[in-house]
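Internal QA ticket QA-208
Title: Verify multi-chain structure generation after dependency bump
Assignee: T.L.

Test input:
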Amino acid sequence: MTPDLMEQGAERLAQYRQKTGTVITQADAVYFGQGVALYVDEISVSFDGFKALNRLSLTIDVGELRCIIGPNGAGKTTMMDCITGKTRPDSGRISFGSNIDVLRMSEPQIAQIGIGRKFQKPTVYEQLSVFENLELALKADRGVRAALFHRLSGEQLDRIAEVLLLIHLKDEAQRTAGLLSHGQKQWLEIGMLLMQDPKLLLLDEPVAGMTDEETERTAELFLTLEGQHSLVVVEHDMKFVDQLTQGRKKVTVLHEGSVLAEGLLSDVQANEKVVEVYLGR
Amino acid sequence: MKPAILSPKAWAGVLAAIIVMAVLVPVLNLLVPESSVFHLGDFTVSLLGKILCYAICALAMDLIWGYTGILSLGHGLFFALGGYAMGMYLMRQIGRDGQYKSDMPDFMVFLNWKEFPWHWALSDSFVAQMLFVLLVPGLLAFVFGFFAFRSRIKGVYFSIITQALTFAAMLLFFRNETGFGGNNGFTDFKRILDVPVTTPQMRVILCVITGLVLIAFFVMARAIVQSKFGRVLQAIRDAETRVMFTGYNPVSYKLAIWTLSAVMCGVAGALYVPQVGIINPGEMSPAASIEIAIWAAVGGRATLIGPIVGAFFVNGAKSWFTVAFPEFWLYFLGALFIAVTLFLPNGLVGLLRRKKEQRT
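Actual output:
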């Protein structure tokens, strides 16, 4: 994804919002009655004629862990941009639960209703401590006044301690986040997502730059989250995908902005079309 | 779990600063005889008062630039607006003691105006004008910031627009028709609250008030950056998209600190004008705003105390240089800025902190 393509998307989104006005929706109002966390319905995005997404449809169930793979430029990051409000699709619908129209909301609103996102490049607040990074992500009133007079309660402290333990950064809590290793920053960002307590987590290449051991621990962590949260993991590392799917979960292959194949990892890997896309003709 | 606003040692420093400003300065200037080595000259007091005003601006700059990462090159405008609001009141206080012995300020008589323009309606009320000192810069900053931040104007684009804003305002205030005295601005003040303004006593009083306001602003700024609000500001500086995807709306945070910063500059301007006895559109020149950023950078961004140190250091150097080597001041300022950018990214305070860490 090139920066100017993303800027175009953001610009189009801004225009759209001016036309429609934003609608504020309560987080509690998400309705998961049909067992589906996310509907992506025929969304298309094009940048100057280049179709980044082409009538892409996808359904993620509540509590599901879904891996999405695909070659570079398949539209994986653009798809996440659309779901989190960063880019506005030209057509199609995205709904969170069965009742919330994501396309009518701004990025902060989408985050507040329970969609968390991890970026490809780890983005943490480098000048703040690990603890403070988590504190800011903690689910709480996001208003200015609330932030001015905010005090951490005992429960919230416990929650931070719990997540610190989970992401193996307990001993680094007071360290400046900028001094962490690349893998630790990835973990911290995952920890920040967990602090938000989102119902749906979108993870863009979460193990990029991690050591094998860190990758394995990340897989374990995600497997414990499965069931309580819905997870969408975009990843290139097939070994990691294999660890996550445990040979029984569905994998989605994206190519040229739409779904090329869906099924078990072993089936997908045997699929001729998929092999062709990955290896070239 | 809330960190203290200041460490006990720092509170002692604040107390010491209050004693220096409220007791030492008046005593040394007014009570100690001029022959004594401890006497504080009138020139020093007025220089101190002036630099204290600049230090308030530098502190305001630190909140918006150092902590939030938004470089304003138009803070001189808010300073000047506060100054003009105070200046209007001071012009009315001249009464009939002006050149033309008229109820109207001299420049209006000169322009042959028979009555006050609409925006001078409340100018003879001290309370109203003091409210304008806060409201005018605050409101302008709020409206400008609302549109700029909502449109997601960032980085160098934002800086350039603020620079253009202060330049446009300067051109507007240069015009006689605007009703602010054109390029001469306001001067020849006689009284404030019916008390003569040019006496040594009044000079000390204004200097002391400025010092106390600076200290109060410092403690307030410290409380802000220690709060969760302050940490969100720093988060916006370091990774704004992450802040958005965590559910915060950066627009309201930026707008709040931007407006506060502008109001602080307005207050500084209002304290500045009676002390230097003049306000003119020169204060809105782009260079004046850039200097504020230089003070903050030299002292050390995101340290609060740094920009105050920077304002004292640069302006102290300026008042010495412009006497000793008047031609070389601008070269020195330029060289200083380059040197700080290259060698002291964290300014003077950053240098001191590094030295201290090395020793321990």
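Spot checks passed. Residues 82 and 267 of chain B are 6 Å apart (CA to CA).
Status: verified.
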